[in-house]
Amino acid sequence: MGEQPDSKGSTSDLLFSRGNLLTAREIASRSGMTLSAAKQLWQSLGFPAVDDSTPYFTSDDGDALDTVQALFDEGVIDLDGAIRLGRLIGTASARIAEAGLAALHERGPESALEHMEIGEIVARMESILGYAWRRQLHAALMRLKLQEDVQQTGPLLRELGVGFADLVGFTSAAAHTSLASLASLTREFEEVSSLAISCAGGRVIKLIGDGVMFVADRPEELIACAEGVRTACSTHATLPQVRSGLAWGNLLLQNGDYFGPEVNLASRITSLVPGGAVALTDALHILSPAQEKRQHMVLRNIKGIGDAEVWIDLGGHNAAVRGAKDALAESHESPGK
Predict the structure, then answer these.
(1) Is the separation of the CB atoms in 212 and 244 below 8 Å?
(2) Pick from 203, 187, 333: which is nearest to 257 by CA?
(3) Which of 87, 183, 219, 324 reaches 20 to 30 Å from 147, CA-CA?
(4) Positive or negative CA dihedral for 59, 61, 63, 69?
(5) % residues pLDDT > 90 (the chain)
(6) What integer pLDDT is reported at residue 18 of this predicted model?
(7) How many other C-beta atoms lie within 10 A of the C-beta of residue 254?
(8) Which residues lie across from 215 on neighbouring strands?
(9) pLDDT class of 110 with cuts at 50, 70, 90
């Protein structure tokens, strides 16, 4: 498969079971799955199509296909569901693989391999990934049990809070910053924001370079997440100010991500408020404490949404943040509610 074996064997030999390579037709026939379904599942993981008659697949690929076919037979999942899940698994595992290699490279391209065989690294990582998945599954099941009126079938809707936080001025700064400095900045933001959100009881859904999306089960936890990220960034030596947008309502859970009007609203209002600000939708403001410290605003002509009433918490610990009130008053109308 185009690999150059070395003294320790080829990459495939180190990562997969040895033996004769199989064609897509052969592994599909072995598992009792149609060739079309097998090909769709393979590509859902993010891999390119392989000619049906080319010996390419190992017995490990066949074992994985056998497992999926067993889930089909038992009625646990259907092909459409497996393809959706495959896309998520493929994307997540690709990111983990790339991040792992990058972490090894930072310590020196050969440092880890000098002291440990690839097979040993893989075995340990598989154990860690399996443990983390079981822990996350347990937490997800507990949250589902606590949620009242969850529908038994169909798309999973949950009432909870969603927030976005992003670094102010990141795009312009990126144009004048080295790639190494940019990587360091985004890594620092990922670390401090993830820690602040988890400590406040929230969950990071995805990190987007200069931004983070998170959810929380309680209004006070959602607000604490945004305030925690704000404090962490304002006290950090190199990170710029952060701004956040928060909303509350019914969210659609799909492929590990959340969708819906409230998600769109939280994302949009984040980009419209000044640095240091935490913006809450009217629905979230009503449900949460400390209402007296917020300033009411109407954000006009939000793309795809129209006008939206929000409540702005500008903090009080930072003079630059307090000065942003003037910018808000100039750019958006408040009816003095």
Answers:
(1) no
(2) 203
(3) 87
(4) negative
(5) 47
(6) 76
(7) 13
(8) 162, 203
(9) low
Task: Report, as an integer, the average pLDDT of 119-145.
Answer: 85
Q: Give the residue carrying structure tokens 């379904």.
A: 37
Mean pLDDT computed over 293-302: 85
Q: Is residue 79's pLDDT more than 90? A: yes
Residue 102: Cβ within 10 Å count: 10
In sequence order, what DSSP letters do the residues of 34-103 get, joined into one string? -HHHHHHHHHHTTPPP--TTS--B-HHHHHHHHHHHHHHHTTS--HHHHHHHHHHHHHHHHHHHHHHHHH
For residues 24-55, b (16+ Cβ closer than 10 Å) or e, as one string?
bebbbebbebeeebbbebbbbbeeeeeeeeee
**Strand pairing category for 278-281 and 242-254:** parallel
Closest listed residue to residue 142, CA positions, set 81, 228, 203: 203
Q: How far is Cα 165 from Cα 243, in angstroms, rounded to an integer?
A: 6
Mean pLDDT of 47-74: 93
Query: Are the C-beta atoms of 314 and 324 separated by less than 8 Å?
Result: yes
Which 3 state secondary structure label does DSSP give 110?
coil
Distance, CA of 52 to CA of 38 (rounded, Å): 11
Q: Do residues 22 and 57 touch, judged by C-beta distance below 8 A?
A: yes
Rg, the chain, Cα only: 24
Per-residue pLDDT tens for 237-269? 888 899 999 999 999 988 788 999 999 999 999
- 232 CB neighbour count, 10 Å cutoff: 21
